[in-house]
Amino acid sequence: MKTLLSTCLLLAFFSPVASLICMKCLGFAKGTCYPLGTETCQADEIFCLSFKMRNPTALLFEFSLKSCAPKGICKEGNFSSTTAQDKHFQSVMKCCKTHLCNKDPIELPPPNMTSNGLRCPACLSMGTSHCQAKTMAKCVGKETRCFNGSGFAKISLAGFPLFTFQQKIAFQGCVTPTSCKFEAPVTLSTSITTISIDKFKCSNATKARFHLADSTISGSRE
Question: In order of start, what are the domains of the chain with their CATH numbers?
Answer without folding.
Answer: 20-102+115-218 (2.10.60.10)
